Amino acid sequence: MPHSFFHHSTLTRQATWPLLIAALVLTAAPRAARGQDVDPADAAAEQAPAQTEPPEPDRHPELTRLSPTEEVWIDQRRKRVVVGGRVALDKGLLEFFACPEGTKEHESVVAVKASARLVHAGLLAIGLEPGRPVSFDPEYTPASGPRIRVLLQWKDADGTPHQSDARRWIRDTRTGKPLETDWVFGGSAFWTDPTNGREYYQADGGDFICVSNFPTATLDLPIESSQSNEALLFEVFDERVPRRDTAVEMVLFEVKD
Predict the structure, then answer these.
(1) Which structural domain range is residue 70 located in?
(2) Positive or negative CA dihedral for 114, 5, 204, 73?
(3) Which of 83, 129, 139, 150 is deepest in the core (most CB within 10 A)?
(4) Tell me: the pLDDT tens digits for 119-175?
């Protein structure tokens, strides 16, 4: 389904998200997977036009993919969102853990092959509701919302699979230890460009999963963490992160304990 499914004028109303997600999931799921009989003639009519190159096979045919062009899947049974990406930074200070490709890769460990809004949609689709982004006025109020754990999956050069808690890839510059705090689903916000009236989901600009506090973050840390270059609290745990451009998948799910 094309990315244009998310019409920008409807996204500003939070009440429309559940309807959009229901339509998205039903449209994305194959009819056979939804328990419907598929007539061969109808199936042929639904096939995409011939392509010069065959499409890559879906890595997760057992899950519901939310877009043919973005790597986001939902696992309704286990209540998880899977997001494809690659290692963007294997050394250096961080303001983000993950950003959409082509945005803030110079300060993010992972660049994802998806928009932040589509991952937000996936989290809604598995039943999560965002809380509130961080606020600094009149005083610091941390981001709030469902607590989200991020797992990483990848293969080394020999094809051996690996898995890690994403926090183990982030080092606290003060203690030298891994990040201990889970992220929360604050939900970012929408911004209207006064010059043309168009509305944008702010985290699509790069602020997808943050380790410095940003009111525009989809997922943020519920602890005070500076954006100042002179006071950044976190860096890449370089001994633990595979080489740059290694393909990875992130698995997002709620933790309650």
Answers:
(1) 3-254
(2) negative
(3) 83
(4) 999 999 999 999 999 999 899 999 999 999 999 999 998 999 999 999 999 999 989
